[in-house]
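Sequence in, structure out. First:
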Amino acid sequence: MEKHYLGHRKRLKERFKDSPKSIPDYELIELLIGFVIKGRDVKKESKELIKFIEGNFNNIFFKNIKKVEGIGEEVDLLFKIIKEFLRRLSLHNHSSNKDTIKSPRDVHDYIKSTIGYQDKESFMVILLNSAGDVIDWEVLFNGTVNCSQVHVREVAEYALKNKAVGVIIAHNHPSGKLEPSKDDREITIKIKKALDLFDINLLDHVLVTPYGYLSFKEREIF
C-alpha cells in the first residue's frame, strides 16, 4: 500500500508541472526539501520554515534555518547549494555586460556576485573614469565595516594610483538588511572628505545583498 505522503508528493509535482505559479510558497519549499528528506511527510516542516523566514525567501539564505524543528544538515546544505548556484548564475550573466556604471542598480548587478553572497562583510572600492567605465576594482577590507577597520588613506591611495576620476564604495550586509549603520555613515563622510582633497568624486556608497541594494546618494545620506 502506497504511503499517503508519496501520493501527495506525486500530485504536488504534477500541479507544479502544470502551473508553477499557482503553487503556494510553503508547497514550493515542500517540493524542494522533499528531495533530501525521504520517508516522511514534510508539510509541517515547510510551513514552519516559511513562518521562521517571515515569508521572505531571501531570509532562507541569511537565517539559521536549522533552528526549525525537522530541518537538519541536509536541508541546510541544499539551500547553501542553491545560494552558490544563484551566485554563479549572477556572475555568468554579468560577464557578458560592458563594465560601465551609470546607476546604483548597475553597481548592484556588477558586484553582487563578488560580495553580495558573502557570509562576512566585505568592503569594495570601484574606480571609474569620466565616462563611467570601470578602471579597476578591489575588495580592500574584510570583516565588520567600521571606522577602525576601513583605512581612508588606503582608499585614497588606491584611487590616486589608478588615476580615477570617480570612486564608488560598496559593502555587503550578510544579514540581508538594507539599512545603513552609524559606522556606515561615518566612514562614507571620512572617505568623501579625503577624496575631495584630490578632486576625486565619491559618487556613491552602495549596500548590497543578492536581492537588493541601498544607495547613499539616492537616500541623500551624503
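Second:
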Amino acid sequence: MTPFDIARSYIGTTEGPGPADNPVIMEMYASVGHDWVEHDSVAWCAAFVGHCLEMAGIKSTRKLTARSYLDWGVPIEVADAQQGDIGVIPRGNSNWQGHVFFIDRIEGAWVWGLGGNQDDAVNVKRYPASKLLGVRRAGNVAPAVTLSVRAVQQRLKDLGYHEVGQVDGKVGPRTRAAILAFRNDNDLALVPIIDVALTEALERASPRKIASERASGAPAESRIVTASNAQIGLGVIGAAGSIGSQIAPALMEAEQARDMAGRVFTLIGLENALSIALPWIGAGVFIGVVVYALRAKAARIDDHRSGKTP
C-alpha cells in the first residue's frame, strides 16, 4: 500500500473523548520515535503523515513539526502536484508552526488535504492553495529500516541485556523482558514492542552499566556455586584420604586377597606398583573434581558480575 492508501484507511479516527487518549493515535507518535508523548492532544498531523510513510516503508522526518517536511524528499511545483504528495501550510502565529497533510486533489483555488489533527480527526479538508508553503514528493528518500527481531535480540545481548536469552528471531517472554529493561534504562515508554524509538536507541546506546556491588559480588543462593563448593569439599577430603591410604598397606593387602584383579597383578608381579599407584590415581581423580568445580564456580561468579545471569 502507498502512504496515501494507508492514510485513507484511518479516515474517521478521532482523538479520545474527554481526558481519554485514542491508542491508535498514541501508536502514531511511537511509530515515528515519540513514544514519550502522553496524550493525543499534542499536535499529531506530522505524526500521522510520518506514521503512514513509515508503514509504507518510506522514512519520514520522524519529527512532530509540520514544517520539517519542507526539507523532506524533493520539491514539487504546485501546478505539478499529484495525489499522495505532501503539502505544508502555516498554522498559528509562530514561523515554526504549520500543518502537514497528503494532497488529495487541487481544484481551482483550493487544495484538499487528507490529514490528521484536522478538527481533532483524520479526514479530508480543503485549504486555500495560496497558503501552500511547499509541496514535497518522496523522490530520493531512503527506505525506512526497522531492525529484525533477530537483530534486536543480538544488539540487546551485545549491550549486556543477557536476559534476552537465545537469539532465535522470536519475541518470547525473555525478549520482551530484555526490551522492557532496555527501555527502562533509556527512558523510553515501557511497552515491549520494536519500533523506531527502540531501534534508534539501540543504534546509539552504550553497553549496559553493571552496578559496583554486582561487579564485585557473587550470586546469592546459586545452585551452581553451592554444588561446586560441595564438590570442592568432597574432592579435598577424597584426595586426602587417597594419599593417606598410602600409609595404610593393610587396605591394599585386603584388596589383593579378595579381588581377582589384585590376584592377576600378584601373578604378574605388579602388586607393589599397584599398591603405590592406586592411592595417587585416586588422589588425581579427586583433584580433577576440585579443579573443575573451581572453574564452574568461577565461571558462574563471572557471569553474575558481567550481568549475564541473575
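Remark: The longest helix spans residues 271-306.
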